[in-house]
Every structure is written in structure tokens, then in C-alpha cells.
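Morning. Coffee machine broken again, so started the prediction first thing and wrote up yesterday's gels while waiting. Chain of 119 residues, entered below exactly as on the submission form.
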Amino acid sequence: MKAVVVVGFLASICAGGAANAAPEWTGKWAFDLAWCSNTAETTDAVPIFLTDTELAGYENTCDIINHEPLVVDGGYLLNLSCSAEGETFDENMLVLVEGGNTLFLYREGPSMTKFKRCE
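Came back before lunch.
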């Protein structure tokens, strides 16, 4: 009986840790890996940055209001509140991570962009 309680306790700790882990789509991503070291001071060909609360690009930032995992492995629906070039707008975005190093962003429109993870 004690073994069952200990196993249940350890399982709840592991599950709690996984729930607090950063989503797999977080990180620094670029359309072309050569862009990974670029900065906005020198070019507009720069990477994007995703955290669990923000998407930051060349001339835009978005607060991630909510993110929900989808049934598709590596897929998430992001609800965003964005600011770009003096405009503010809300947007939904579908993100799909493939193999841990490829990110597909599907925006309303429809529009899809493929990114690679910067090391």
C-alpha cells in the first residue's frame, strides 16, 4: 500500500513539472538560419522570438493571451493581441512544431510561414 502512495505522489510531481515546462514552440526562430545572428539595427531579415507570453518580430509584438494545445502532436492555437506599425489588432495563430526544430506559423488569411530553430 505504501508503494502505491509513493508512486502516485511521484507521478503527481512529474505531471506538475511537465505542466509548468515551457511550450515546445518557445525560442528563437528564423526563416533562414543565416538570419539567426542578425539584429534589427542592421537588417529587417531577423529572427522572431517566442516565449509563452509574447511573440516579437521585426516591427511587431504580440502578447499571447492564451495558448491551447491541439489534438495534433506539436500543434497549438495562440490567441494574440498585437501591435505593428502603429496599429493594434487581435489575431489567432496556429503553430505546429515538427521534429523540435521546424516551426510552422499559420496566420489568418490564410498564410503559412516555415521557420527553423536558431541554436
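Residues 2-20 form the longest helix (19 residues). Going to sketch it on the whiteboard this afternoon.
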